[in-house]
Specification:
Layout: E1 2-10, E2 13-22, E3 29-31, H1 36-49, E4 53-55, H2 56-59, H3 64-67, E5 73-74, H4 79-99, H5 103-128
Parallel strand pairs: 1-5, 2-4
Antiparallel strand pairs: 1-2, 2-3
Length: about 130
């Protein structure tokens, strides 16, 4: 998962600058676990007030460096470096999965590696163009 800030939609309210975790492979997005409660409260109040847009940072003060210190990668890094880092991590995990003979996990990691490898190829092609 990559740590970043994004805009989430809660019913008809767009909440900007929410600390989120994003998976570059499956495209899943999660509200960062350290601010989930604050997000839920703010989202409910904003929806109840009929606000169409709000900025999370205006209502909740959290140090984003602290929030994202456990993330392996951040959005502001070079995309190719992020993908290479994700590939390295998946390869390390694949070794462990094979050592403990976890076939399902190994297969999941191989799929992940396929997606990441394709993304790395595209990024390298963009750099050379």
């Amino acid at each position: 998962m990559i740590g970043t800030k994004g805009t989430l939609k809660h019913f008809r309210t767009h909440i900007h600058n929410v600390p989120i975790l994003f998976c570059p492979v499956c495209q899943s997005v999660e509200v960062h676990h350290m601010i989930e409660n604050e997000y839920e409260i703010l989202a409910e109040f904003a929806h109840g007030d009929g606000a169409s847009e709000i900025d999370f940072q205006d209502y909740v003060e959290k140090d984003t460096n602290l929030l994202f210190e456990n993330c392996v990668n951040n959005e502001n890094e070079d995309p190719l470096e992020v993908v290479i880092s994700q590939i390295d991590m998946a390869l390390d995990l694949l070794v462990i999965a094979k050592q403990i003979d976890d076939t399902q996990w190994s297969n999941d990691l191989k799929k992940r590696l396929g997606v990441l490898s394709a993304r790395r190829t595209k990024l390298r092609q963009r750099q050379t163009s």
